[in-house]
Amino acid sequence: MSARRTAPRIDDAYTYHGIDAVLLENSQLRILVVPGKGGDILEFRDKQTDVDVLWHADHEWTPPDAGTIPEPESASWLDHYPGGWQLNLPIAGTVADDDLPYGLHGESALIPWSYTTNTTDDAVTLELQTDLLRYPFSLERTLTLSRGEAALEITERVTNEGGVDLEYIWQQHIALGQPLIGPGARLDVPTTMGQVAEYRPGHENARLKSGATFEWPEAPGTDGTMIDLRQFPPLDSTIHDVAYATDLEAGWFAVTNPDLDVGFCFTFPTDPFECLWYWQPFGGHAEAPYWNRNYNVGLEPTTAYPAGDVPAAQRDNGTMKTLRAGETLEASFVARTYHGVESVSAVDPDGTVHE
């Protein structure tokens, strides 16, 4: 009886906004996944503190129609964006080439995935699979939650089923929100260099200097001051920036909130995820669907940068990658919550945190 009480569980008797949903739970974590929309992870709750580390959209959103994806324009992905954590393929960012049939962030987060579940006394596993509609990519994603562990293990496989070599951008689009994110929290990233996005005319509420290259974590501000990107601004801020950690010494990031005694870290392979996008909508994202309502961050391990002018900009800086016909790529990740830490000096590939 004790083993049954403490064993992890998995349950698919749920829907979320009318979408098929699966709950994975053990003594440390509660995780909600929606196979019916991209396999999105929409809850990552630390049970010790009852903190869900993910951000939930302030705006209204609608589920995509099953079996279809929207027209290739940026608003389409955003119309169906609930916050949380998405897998983006075959591209991430905004397309500027009419030859690519996408507007923003590809299609993997907009289509339904099939799934199977498996349960043992020691772990539960959710296996997800889908085939893209506009690219000949087959995707597999396996999520494992083990007994007593505050860690979710993820393995992903991408196969080019076509007869043509194809460029791709692969991204973990992880949006973290309050109460984890706030002035009392700290971001740690093992990098030496960063770059601010090149802002287009009319970009509002930037505090970072457009296009600047800098030594992480001190980024040049628009007012001539240096901004420490390890810190988060006040909750009443009106800021919107995007930066990239471009010279990663290891594949991890960590956000720690000592006031809540909780942190969240994520590990990833730097080959091929060579950069970390850092989206910073601190109450100042003035465009639809945000309208200056949301205070959150996106910490997004990605195989290329920047976030705009796909695919030309990524070709120009040499970060665009190609999946050969018939080739399969596999990558593994760990997402974890932790306690008793004020800052993080390192995270091992298995998610072990070092202060």
TrEMBL record:
Gene3D superfamilies attached to this UniProt entry: 2.70.98.10
Its domain of life?
Archaea
One matching Pfam family: DUF4432
Molecular function (GO) terms for this protein are: carbohydrate binding; catalytic activity
What the entry lists under InterPro entries is as follows: DUF4432, Gal_mutarotase_sf_dom, GH-type_carb-bd
What GO terms describe the biological role, i.e. biological process, of this protein? carbohydrate metabolic process
- The protein depicted here goes by the name DUF4432 domain-containing protein
